[in-house]
Input
Amino acid sequence: MNVIKNLSILIGCIVLLAACSSTPTAKTASSPTPAPATPSTPAKSVPAVESKVQSVVIPAYLDPKSALSTNRSIYFDYDNFSIKPEFSQLLELHGKYLAANPKLSIHIEGNADERGSAEYNLALGQKRADIVLRALKTYGVKDAQMEAVSWGEEKPKAAGHNEAAFSQNRRADLAYPTK
Output
């Protein structure tokens, strides 16, 4: 009997403690809102903090919004290394930029589709890279700023064995430094 009495006292204490917990209650609309405190002295103006962060200028060839960064491929017709007229503006853009930045150097990477032998595709890729190099020289880019290399069919841009993929892989890419 004593055990039951002690147990009921213990349960009563637990219920009482649970009722007194510190869980916040929602305010009702009838609760009075305290008046905002009014400052006794006028607020002092705080001087503006001068930023010590230096702005960083991203070179145009690294800026993902720049045409120099987004348009770096010159495409060629099948078994050809002549530059199409639609790429003259692209070459002019890159040529003038490189001429204005003589410390910057690039690789011109010639590519071919998978048709043809490995040796033929390497030679064709080199011819494509060389013709782009010569075109950039007309805008004042120095030889020391450029290197023409061929990947042949080793670095395709598009996978597939159809004309859509082949046309993406017949190209010369302007490879700028990554930093």
Observations:
- The beta strands are 73-75, 106-111, 146-152, 171-175.
- The chain has a mean pLDDT of 85.
- Residues 158 and 165 are 5 Å apart (CA to CA).
